[in-house]
């Protein structure tokens, strides 16, 4: 009876163990699922924060891009009338457009992150891609113009200065030349002798000047009659090299800002795709 009693008592215990085993397995499966859900939520939250911080930086970058474009056009903008092509100005206008779009897109990106809608994220991604292409075009134009800058100035600046200075209807060029020579402390495209055969100096309007008054170190009326190095910028070199350096520096700044914002955009597009995928997989 003792044996029977022992057997009787052990059977229910085995039965209980067999019944508890599926429950433990079920409980373990639920814990694994909860862990995966928590992990997925954590990744989504991290992506949202990353994208939000990116949009703040992106908005600041857009303001910088637009500022560089405006600065390029305003700072010594008179020089643009001396250039044979409008590529330099077009690059600046493209930067201004891209900067404005970046600022608007940054605001749109913040809204897309807050609302967590796939349609908003898709629109935001398309805007990022469009701005990236615009900046790419501006960068290509700036690079092409940078390669041709020296040749263009050598071919056209001397002709523009000597044939159009102080001529009727060419007031913009006259002002640009005067400012160029004063700002860069230069005289003539290559040197002061370039003015000897200019249309202005060979006419009676020059009143005996050998160089424009803007070549003088201290401008006074008819100071251009005396071309001594103590009076004019005669030994400081021509304006071509100085204008070329000025434009090249501006183009490098345009390129550097464009590359920086473009790299930032690539990060933003990656974050957007990841968040779009997380929201797509979210069953809720």
From TrEMBL:
Presence of keyword rRNA-binding: no
Gene3D superfamilies recorded: Tetraspanin
Membrane topology: Multi-pass membrane protein
Matches recorded under Pfam families: Tetraspanin
Membrane-crossing segments per the record: 49-74, 94-114, 121-146, 251-275
Cellular component annotations (GO), alphabetically ordered: plasma membrane
Superkingdom of origin: Eukaryota
Keywords: Membrane, Transmembrane, Transmembrane helix
Primary localization class, coarse: membrane
Subcellular location field: Membrane
Family statement: Belongs to the tetraspanin (TM4SF) family.
Name this protein carries in UniProt: Tetraspanin
Species this chain originates from: Oncorhynchus tshawytscha
């Amino acid at each position: 009876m003792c044996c029977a009693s022992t057997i009787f008592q052990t059977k229910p215990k085995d039965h209980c163990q067999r019944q508890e085993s599926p429950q433990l397995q079920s409980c373990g499966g639920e814990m694994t699922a909860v862990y995966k859900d928590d992990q997925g939520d954590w990744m989504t939250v991290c992506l949202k924060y990353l994208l939000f911080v990116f949009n703040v930086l992106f908005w600041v970058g857009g303001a910088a891009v637009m500022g560089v474009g405006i600065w390029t056009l305003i700072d010594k903008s008179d020089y643009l009338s001396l250039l044979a092509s409008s590529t330099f100005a077009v690059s600046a206008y493209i930067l201004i457009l891209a900067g404005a779009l970046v600022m608007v897109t940054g605001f749109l990106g913040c809204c897309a992150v807050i609302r967590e809608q796939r349609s908003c994220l898709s629109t935001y991604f398309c805007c990022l891609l469009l701005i990236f292409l615009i900046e790419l075009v501006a960068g290509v134009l700036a690079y092409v113009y940078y390669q041709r800058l020296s040749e263009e100035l050598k071919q056209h600046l001397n002709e523009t200065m000597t044939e159009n200075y102080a001529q009727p209807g060419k007031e913009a060029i006259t002002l640009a030349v005067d400012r160029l020579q004063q700002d860069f402390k230069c005289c003539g495209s290559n040197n002061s002798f370039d003015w000897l055969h200019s249309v202005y100096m060979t006419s009676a309007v020059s009143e005996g000047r050998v160089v424009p008054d803007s070549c003088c170190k201290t401008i006074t009326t008819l100071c251009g009659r005396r071309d001594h190095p103590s009076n004019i910028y005669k030994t400081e070199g021509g304006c071509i090299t100085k204008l070329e350096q000025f434009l090249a520096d501006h183009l490098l700044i345009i390129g550097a800002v464009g590359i920086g914002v473009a790299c930032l955009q690539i990060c933003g597009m990656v974050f957007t795709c990841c968040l779009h995928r997380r929201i797509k997989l979210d069953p809720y």
